[in-house]
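ARCHIVE CARD
Drawer: 12
Card no.: 0347
Subject: one protein chain, sequence and derived structure
Cross-reference: see card 0346
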Amino acid sequence: MHVWNRHYCFYESLFYLRDSISSWLDGNLLASLALLRPFLELSVLHIYRHATADKNGHEKHLEWVHGKKNKPNFHAMVDLSIERIEAAEFCNTERLNLLKESLKKAFKSLCAYNHSPQLDESISTMSKGNFSISAESVLFYLVVASFVLRQVIYLFVLAYPTSLFPVDKYKKWGVSPPVGLYFDEYNYAAIREFLGAENLETLKLQLENCDDVVDLMSFYNSCEDLPDETLNELWANFCKHTKMQMNRGIMDRKKRILLSKAVIRALNWGLSYTEKDNEGRMNNDTLESLMASWSKLKDW
């Protein structure tokens, strides 16, 4: 299984979401809406990669990442992703179809701000032709962004159903748990606050018998709790291997968990952008090469 670039689409989507929100806070409403489209598309691409990985792993996905192949049609990715997600068979068919259609309609609507918005889609129309920002346009972004983000999170929950069943990873594996298989109280809190506790209970009832959930929960329960001595040894080894000996004396459980999460996330982020042939590529991306191209193209 490839380690390199597997989660590129996920981490890249976060850049677009962050910049979209930053643009909105800065009053750049058109930019904030335009950035939601790549966020949505990259999010669906990540789930598509997850749902369609075959015995060869993620080769097809990597071909697109490295520019060797065009990415699939957005509508086709949505359909195939939801069809291939194992948890989908435990969900209400009507609600799944609604999720499909909402993602497709959201993408179509957002395309207007990357291409040519019609009169009733124009930010200028919402602002009544003024250059100043209107309350209507500010609220419009909030509604659109919340809607898009909510549907994306539903899609991720279906792809990773154990996210709804948080466990105490620390007592089983210390700061070195199986990566990407389980959620704990800290991961789960964000989903609960955004989607709502009662809403999640409905989803839990539908997904609790999903094979992924049953198998992973069974494995979790089969693992013994680690004694404090072992947990301290694991923390010491973690600090040593991550070159963070200054943190070895930390005894607070929560601080250990959050710090280890930050380190693992940084490593995953780096692996998502690092290229195995990076040395060869750097020669083509130097400032001198760019300036040479610019000197040829700057004048007619």
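Annotation on reverse: Residues 167-274 form one domain. Residues 135-159 form the longest helix (25 residues).
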